[in-house]
Design goal:
Blueprint lengths: L1 H9 L2 E4 L8 E6 L4 E5 L2 E2 L2 E2 L4 E6 L5 E6 L16 E4 L2 E4 L5 E4 L2 E6 L3 E6 L6 H12 L5 E3 L5 E4 L6 E6 L7 H16 L4 E5 L4 H6 L21 H12 L2 E10 L6 E3 L6 E2 L2 E4 L4 H12 L10 H9 L2 E8 L7 H12 L1
Parallel strand pairs: 3-7, 15-16, 15-17, 17-21, 18-20
Antiparallel strand pairs: 1-6, 2-3, 4-5, 6-12, 7-11, 8-9, 8-12, 10-11, 13-14, 14-16, 18-21, 19-20
Length: 342
Amino acid sequence: MYAILTKERRIKLDILTEYEGSSIKILEQNNEKNIAELSLVEENKKYSHYYNFTVDNKSNSEGIIHIKNIMQSDYYSNEQNHAPYIRINNKWKKMAKNDYKMEENELILTIQPMTKAEISLVPRYVEEDLYNFINQIKEKHNITIKNEVLPQIEIGNEDDPVIIVLGRQHPGETLSSTFIEGIIESIVSNNLKYHFIIFPIVNQLGVKKGNHRYTNNIDYNRSWNKENPPQEIKYIKEIMKTNRPQYFIDVHNDEMTNKDYIRMNSNLNEIAGIQVLKSMSKLRRFMRALIKQHKIINTNNLTAREYVEKKYKCTSILVELSMGLEYSKIKEKGKKFILELL
């Protein structure tokens, strides 16, 4: 009995990572001082940007967590709002300003006494969350769910014009799934006369592993014109052959800006309050990656939007949500977006 109590006293700041969508590396813990040192994980030989873990502070004093290598991510930007999200009692919100700070190459978090919470760059969203949402919608509306290769939702008459929607080609861009929830709610509430084929979680393995951008060193969004893309991309391309899209919508998060934007070839200035920008030239894309992310990209690798627009001559749309966007507003943006677009 004495041994068990001693062990319990030693565990003051318990870090949990063994669950779907978690992503962090534990470096060191000092139980006497109630301090833990963590690090971003490595992905494609670089530090990831996304992080997620659960912490259980079982002591009566504040716990301190240092997350190292924050600024080593290719997607770190001083312009971005880096307030982490915290989930307590199943509700996500931004951490209080007094509970986090950036110091050199670390994000330092304060965990209040006797608190168990999930900490995340952006709210974690995995397949379980998707199916919980879909099961609620199914009770009131006629939708079809398939999972032959990846989660696929179909709404509307197959004889109507086709709209294909994607999210989570980059697994750490979790806000896109919530935005797509808003799109789905708007579709079923307004009885829009289109055949929607929706893939809210394209990169399944990356989502499960808590990756940010790559899975097996592959960027799904830049694999569309390669000879052997991931099986999920192959599957979606096959669906398009028999369901030629009139609209193609690919939803992402942009880590480098605090403003949402849309890229499409259109005379519109905005949709649902989101600024519409013209497509970037290859040179501009190359320079943006070099200056903002300090990396060299191969502009010959077409993105999903570029590939679909070139092949099907349809209205092809990229939605980029800012990771600094207030979480509670994302679903509403998705609802308004699809209504104003159509």
